């Protein structure tokens, strides 16, 4: 569609934030239907969270006392889940090449035979950081939160007692995550932290499913502090597990490098976003996502136009000299 991209959506990008003024009831209803009442990433993540709660993670009762058995069980489940989701998407899009170049943002393939990467291979490098530091720290935050819940230090609710809040909190968790991500992301783009920490993630200019959770250990820590909200806000374990899936395997879904999953040439599932793809290409823009308005409000929004590219490059030059 252009010299810069293999594919991009219609440009300039529209304002897709739910926080529009004046409120647009039609848009909000469409957003609710698109995200929660049809087959979507969030619905799939919620189904997975319920399955994890029912069959795979240890009970809160067993988490009252720290013990190797249940902690190892959580790590094993998380390792398997990240491997299955990121690995499955990588197999589908990049090994089997089920969609070829259809809806793929970049023309290039994943990096190989390049000393930029550990093991001289982008995918192996990304797997190392995602499954290593990522899987361990995700498990650490989860273990701490479950222990706090089990011992009464973090508020726990049930659906029967608080059905409205139970459902509302599920809808709000991705919004909280987007709010938290924007500000942590801005912090990580400060020159010192960027050079020493965040640059590891940004080696992935041409992203793939394994890129999403591939981070420096310090970045993993900052990124996963979003889960600490459950130490304060009343939550059910399903809320925590949904949040775990959203932050871990969910990062693979948003970094596929493709706009949508096609089935018989029909768009069946929204995955990667061009909004974030622009961030990986131009760096100092689109720190958050389209759901929250922070990039627009604070002058860091890139709408895909050549004018926005020029403005972003000027801002990057001012930041790094």
UniProtKB/TrEMBL annotation:
The keyword Transmembrane applies. It is found in: Membrane. The chain crosses the membrane at residues 43-60, 72-94, 128-150, 162-184. InterPro entries: Fatty_acid_hydroxylase, Sterol_Desaturase_Related. Keywords: Membrane, Transmembrane, Transmembrane helix. It comes from the Bacteria. This is Sterol desaturase family protein. It comes from Ruegeria haliotis. The lineage of its organism: Bacteria, Pseudomonadati, Pseudomonadota, Alphaproteobacteria, Rhodobacterales.
């Amino acid at each position: 569609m252009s010299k810069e991209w293999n594919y991009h959506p219609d440009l300039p990008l529209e304002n897709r934030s739910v926080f529009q003024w004046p409120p647009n009831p039609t848009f909000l209803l469409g957003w609710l239907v698109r995200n929660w009442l049809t087959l979507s990433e969030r619905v799939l993540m919620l189904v997975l969270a319920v399955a994890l709660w029912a069959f795979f993670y240890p009970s809160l009762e067993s988490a009252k006392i720290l013990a190797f058995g249940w902690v190892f069980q959580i790590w094993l489940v998380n390792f398997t889940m990240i491997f299955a989701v990121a690995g499955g998407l990588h197999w589908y899009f990049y090994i089997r090449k089920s969609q070829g170049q259809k809806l793929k943002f970049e023309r290039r393939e994943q990096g190989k035979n390049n000393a930029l990467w550990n093991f001289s291979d982008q995918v192996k490098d990304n797997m190392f950081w995602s499954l290593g530091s990522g899987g361990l720290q995700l498990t650490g935050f989860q273990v701490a939160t479950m222990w706090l819940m089990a011992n009464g230090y973090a508020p726990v609710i049930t659906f029967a007692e608080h059905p409205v809040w139970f459902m509302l909190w599920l809808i709000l968790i991705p919004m909280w995550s987007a709010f938290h991500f924007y500000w942590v992301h801005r912090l990580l783009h400060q020159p010192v932290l960027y050079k020493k920490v965040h640059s590891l993630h940004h080696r992935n200019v041409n992203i793939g499913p394994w890129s999403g959770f591939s981070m420096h250990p310090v970045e993993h820590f900052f990124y996963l502090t979003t889960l600490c909200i459950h130490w304060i806000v009343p939550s059910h374990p399903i809320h925590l597990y949904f949040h775990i899936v959203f932050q871990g395997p969910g990062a693979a879904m948003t970094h596929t490098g493709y706009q949508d999953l096609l089935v018989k040439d029909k768009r069946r599932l929204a995955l990667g976003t061009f909004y974030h793809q622009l961030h990986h290409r131009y760096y100092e823009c689109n720190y958050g996502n389209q759901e929250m308005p922070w990039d627009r409000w604070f002058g860091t929004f890139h709408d895909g136009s050549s004018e926005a590219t020029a403005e972003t490059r000027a801002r990057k030059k001012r930041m790094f000299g």
